[in-house]
Design brief:
Shape: globular
Helix content: under 10%
Strand content: 25-35%
Order of helices and strands: EHEEEEEEEEEEEEEEEEEEE
Number of domains: 2
Radius of gyration: 22 Å
């Protein structure tokens, strides 16, 4: 949504015009200087390359009420990738039981006697699974594979991650634009006092409500914008899902993400150098939400991450 120019946002606040040099960042924005940006990029790459990085996600299976057999055998309803660590497991080593009823349905994992499935390092035979929409999501492991229940607007799926996958290590770098001081903007947080959260569509085509405590108002290239933010609490990082005119060419067609925090004075640093690729760039088994209409900007933001090599990106 376009707003009036953000005259009260403070800070740098505007992308420099060609031939102009952005002023130095003040001390209160020291963590967003170029040295801080280099550290952020390195931390981001290390997280993606690690066993919990998005390239290690190798499967996503949507669930309906009833029983779902799990294993590497082709006869199963949920067929797992044939990884070396499953060599000692039976072709069907567990069954996922989704109970009938209103969402969220209860889900149980029943393990075959001769199989080994671990929960918190201990072998289990039967356990209820809690989704990522709960405070304590369940993660079970079979060999190098971890199995996690996800909830997308009441629709449940089993996500499979291979902790030994070589795909993360193949990611040597994430192409990015050069750091620019003028892309470190300061906006303000405006609390959402009533009404629902953000209704967002994801890449799977699902539309459901995401928690949102407010918007971020910021000036970009001399125009004020009200950006819808995903987040359940003001004192937690907010997620901005932003589209711009680089999408589909240099950057992912579904937009990019930006994490931002509300400061004590209500200001929000919107560092466009830290726009990053959503998980769908690194795996075909993610459910990335797409930018809401008000976050689709008619400008080119030549900052942040670009698309990686097609050999690593999922699409």
């Amino acid at each position: 949504m376009v707003t009036a120019a953000c005259t009260s946002c403070g800070g740098p606040g505007e992308i420099a015009r060609p031939g102009e040099e952005a002023p130095p960042l003040p001390d209160q924005l020291a963590e967003f200087r170029e040295s801080g940006h280099r550290k952020w990029r390195q931390d981001r790459l290390e997280a993606l390359r690690g066993p919990e990085g998005w390239p290690s996600v190798v499967g996503l299976h949507w669930l309906s009420p009833g029983s779902h057999s799990i294993g590497a055998g082709p006869e199963n309803r949920i067929v797992l990738p044939e990884v070396p660590s499953l060599a000692g497991q039976p072709p069907t080593f567990a069954t996922l039981v989704v109970e009938e009823g209103s969402p969220p349905a209860r889900v149980w994992l029943e393990v075959q006697p001769e199989a080994e499935v671990l929960l918190n390092g201990r072998s289990i035979r039967r356990s209820e699974l809690h989704s990522d929409a709960t405070p304590t999501p369940t993660i079970v492991s079979a060999g190098s594979l971890s199995l996690r229940l996800i909830d997308r607007g009441g629709e449940l799926a089993l996500r499979i991650r291979d902790l030994d996958s070589p795909r993360g290590e193949a990611l040597e770098e994430i192409p990015s634009w050069e750091y620019r001081r003028d892309l470190v903007l300061v906006g303000r947080f405006e609390e959402r006092t009533a009404g629902p959260g953000l209704m967002l569509e994801n890449v799977v085509g699902q539309v459901y409500e995401h928690p949102s405590v407010g918007d971020v108002v910021v000036e970009i290239a001399g125009v004020g914008y009200r950006l819808g933010a995903v987040g359940a609490a003001r004192d937690e990082p907010l997620l901005l899902i932003i589209a711009d005119q680089t999408n589909g060419d240099e950057t992912y067609s579904g937009g990019r993400y930006l994490s931002a925090e509300v400061r004590a004075d209500g200001s929000v640093v919107v560092d466009l150098n830290r726009l990053y690729n959503p998980p769908c760039v690194f795996t075909a088994y993610a459910t990335c939400p797409l930018p809401p209409a008000g976050n689709r900007l008619p400008v080119r933001i030549e900052g942040g991450e670009k698309l990686p090599d097609r050999g690593v990106a999922s699409k």
